[in-house]
Amino acid sequence: MMFTGIIAAVGRIESAVTGPGGPNAGLKLSIECGSLALDTVSLGDSIAINGVCLTVTKKDSGRIEADVSGETLSCTVGLDGPGAVNLEKALCLGDALGGHLVSGHVDGVGRVLQFESRGESFLLRILAPHELARFLAVKGSVTVQGVSLTINSVEDLAAGCAFAINLIPHTLSHTTLKALTPGARVNLEVDMMARYAERLARFATARPAIEAADS
């Protein structure tokens, strides 16, 4: 399944119930979907919740249920209890690509360093893990809590990679990002085109050595 990072609605996790296998086995989420149109959503469809692709297991009157595994909980934030969440239905063939191609597979968890007003907009600065630094570039794309955003600056630090984003009022009013504060943890997904480019570059560099070893 693919997404675009353009949030369709803000919903709310109403409950996160531990399954019979215990907390390590995952949770069953009940989500109130706000203004998200569910008429085209069927059981088994995918919805991105705070940037995490989950499968709809039940649908009923403006609500859905979804199971989240222990593994997913261990590498994401914002799915383990009640709270507001960003929602996006999976991309269909022929839909407009308003953001960028997003898989709904979180690459790491970042930490908000700065969130402050800059005129009519807001500056959001996030510290990403070291392993994501090679995928973050000025004017490149990144997904934060499921929201497709453009990177304005990148700074490599001892603690990780700090990148800055300019948030316009529309984005703040239509997502949960308006509630961020310094220290908050956020789900990050890097641009998959950057991931493929990095893999191609590494393979091109390693190939002569591989061929020499095989000869």
General description of the model:
The chain is α+β, with helices and mostly antiparallel strands. The chain folds into two domains: 81 residues, Elongation Factor Tu (Ef-tu), domain 3; 92 residues, Elongation Factor Tu (Ef-tu), domain 3 (Beta Barrel), CATH 2.40.30.20. The chain has three helices and twelve strands. A six-stranded antiparallel β-barrel has the order 1-2-5-4-3-6. The protein has a six-stranded antiparallel beta barrel with strand order 7-8-11-10-9-12. The longest helix has 23 residues. It starts with 8 loop residues before the first strand and ends with a helix.
Q: What level of helicity do the residues show? A: 10-25%
Number of domains: 2
Q: Shape, please?
A: globular
Radius of gyration, rounded? 18 Å
- Architecture per CATH nomenclature, i.e. the level-2 architecture of the largest domain: Beta Barrel
User: Uncertain segments of ≥5 residues (pLDDT<50)?
Assistant: none
Q: Give me the strand/helix succession.
A: EEEEEHEEEEEEHEH
How many helical elements?
A: 3
Could you say what the CATH topology of the largest domain is called? Elongation Factor Tu (Ef-tu), domain 3
How far is it from the N-terminal to the C-terminal residue, by CA?
41 Å
Give the strand order, joined by hyphens, for the main sheet: 1-2-5-4-3-6
In short:
The chain is of the alpha+beta class and 215 residues long. The protein contains 3 helices and 12 strands; from the N terminus they run βββββαββββββαβα.
Indicate the topology:
Elements: E1 9-18, E2 27-32, E3 46-49, E4 52-60, E5 63-68, H1 70-74, E6 83-89, E7 108-118, E8 121-128, E9 141-144, E10 147-157, E11 160-167, H2 169-173, E12 185-190, H3 192-214
Antiparallel strand pairs: 1-2, 1-6, 2-5, 3-4, 3-6, 4-5, 7-8, 7-12, 8-11, 9-10, 9-12, 10-11
